[in-house]
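Reading a protein record of the kind used here takes little practice once its layout is understood. The reader may check this reading against the record printed directly beneath this paragraph.
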Amino acid sequence: MKVKIRRTSVPPKSLLEERRVRGRGALPPDLETQVRKIIEAVKKRGDSALIEFTERFDGVSMEVSRLKVTEEDVERAYELVSGEQVSAIELSKSRVKLLERNLLERLNFEVKYEGVEVYSRTRPLRSVGCYVPGGEASYPSTVVMTVTPAKVAGVPRVVICTPPKRGGDVEPITLVAADICGADEVYRVGGAQAVAALTYGTASIKPVEKVVGPGNRYVLAAKLLVSTDVATDLPAGPSEVLILADESADPRLVALDMVAQAEHGVWGYSILVTVSANLADEVQNELARIVPSSPRARIVEEALSRNGLILVLRSLEECVSFVNEFAPEHLEIMVDNPLEVAEKINAAGLVLLGGYTPASASDYCLGVNHVLPTGGFGRTYSGLSVLDFVKRLNIVKCSREGLSKVREAVKVLAEAEGLPNHALSVEARFKD
């Protein structure tokens, strides 16, 4: 198989324009129409619409009573997973928890100056819904990445929605991950209908204050459409990687990372940007050698043929400029001085340095979150974190002396804005 090598100093305009359109949140009209109909049906018919769409899209006929996962379901799930799988989930959770706790601690602080005391505090949201892709696949890591920071934040009600398998069950390892991470409720429902249920509620699923988590284009579209009625996190659609490399990079590792990305599916990007024509040739040859015998070869080949690219530019500066325009979900930097280059990056979901920091590892056990902005949204969004599950609250105390120091400035500004009672409110505190 061949991945097109574009040897030019001009990045592909059509690709960057597509990213700009995505970055503005535009949806294809046909996709928007279809998803809007699903949302409206769930709003009007609730559980019956969920049952209908689960049968239509997932091929699962289910009673309403089966929507919610029970404690018995979770107990059976533990019998079907290995001890090694449980340990891996616990390791992943512990790494994420450590990073998120450190972040949360730094959000709570005090500042005191000239008679004023400001206490910056965080407060958890009351409820969140975590979308976890599923069906015939299983993504326990997404459970870790969404539920763990929510629980670190102190959210009392964390709900998971995930599509059922053909038999109507949820993948056992997903349920085990949900239990280990502390999810409070799990429902067998996926797609745009799950987002609608979490937003507007049904008889079985109470609505939440915020919906987070990655998904396919239908899930992403649903989150964008309901965002006027419920808080949502970053737009996390099909996964993507961009590798910025020079002649010091190992072409085999570059190729393997592109292949690993491609197995996510045909809609995401696997891109190499380099200053080295030799590296481009070597990676091309490695791909031709690796892909035919790789696991999931058919999906990998189709994904690379559709959205694989090797771009050769004239300088490292041009490469950095392209990265910041493209705003990839994952950016791997494999150059002589990766940290120096990373300091020039301002648009990416996650930056990974050197040959021993592959995106594959960050998806699971490096402590960073793998729910990241895709489709060009890396220009304005950050990856999911404890920040998405708290609201900031400032608590202020001012002494008489502290108020006197701003007394005149308040008067001047209040009068300039035509709000004299603001000034009088302050002045009254100095009348004997």
Q: What stands out?
A: The two ends are 87 Å apart (CA to CA). The chain has a mean pLDDT of 93.
